[in-house]
Amino acid sequence: MPSIDLTGKVAVVTGSGRGLGLAYAHALAAHGASVVVNDVDEAVAEAAVKSITEAGGTAVAEVVPVGTTEAAEALVNRAVEEFGRLDILVTNAGILRDKVLWKMSDEDFDAVITTHLKGTFTCARAAAVRMREQGEGGTLILVGSPAGQRGNFGQTNYAAAKAGIAAFARTWSMELGRANITVNAIVPVAATAMTETIPAFAPYIEALRNGQAFPDFLRKGEGFGTPEDCAALVPFLASEAARGITGQAIGIGGDKVALWSHPQEIKTAYADGGWTPETLADAFPTSVGAELQSVGIPAPKFPEA
Questions:
Q1: Containing domain of residue 27, as a range?
Q2: How many folded domains does the chain comprise?
Q3: Which residues are catalytic, by number?
């Protein structure tokens, strides 16, 4: 079994004051990387740094709201000033402003797109510039979501941003391949402040707080566990063991790891000379329309009481 050793590597993890981001930062530090922790709350960021250093890791905090070019450059500059380089970027920062389409305001949409999508773009751009200058390769790990893969009710802004992030990974893996910079999207599923709002999961998350482990039907059947369960994927993708993996969307949660497929044509039909509305109406139901795809994140399958 290969050893995952990130000694000498430097990572920036956005939105790492708590939840999944904090778990990613801890996992990277535990495997030897020096970490720049990021949050918008100074007390939260400093508490995260303290928890990492008390566990034997190395970390500093950079308090800045992700989204702008200035914030991205501040994060990269902090890594270089403190540790001399940048090797790993994890774009985890995010917010929610859930509403159905007809109730979503411009402000709701823009806030989520700015943090998730533009924040991923600006941070990745700044990191790519630095990594290319260093000339030693690097790793971009972009945090996606099942909502971006399949859509989710009430999450126009979030689902669109996460779908864009998966497209970023595919595009940037091509653009940065010659610089030996790998780019992957991860699709975590875990008990967080976000998923706790889902009524079906809430009692199990409360039981977890009281010391009860998640049952197998959640950990295996649903691929649902703790943030720490998702964290292993990050140091792995940042390591030499994953140098040949790029442009992928990889899901993890509980006891499950999965590879998501890329969008692709699944059924085709042809008409000599092209299609008319009438010929489409005639042929569609028995040709490409025979395999219409489902949408939305499948509901959890709980055992019968």
A1: 10-260
A2: 1
A3: 145, 158, 162
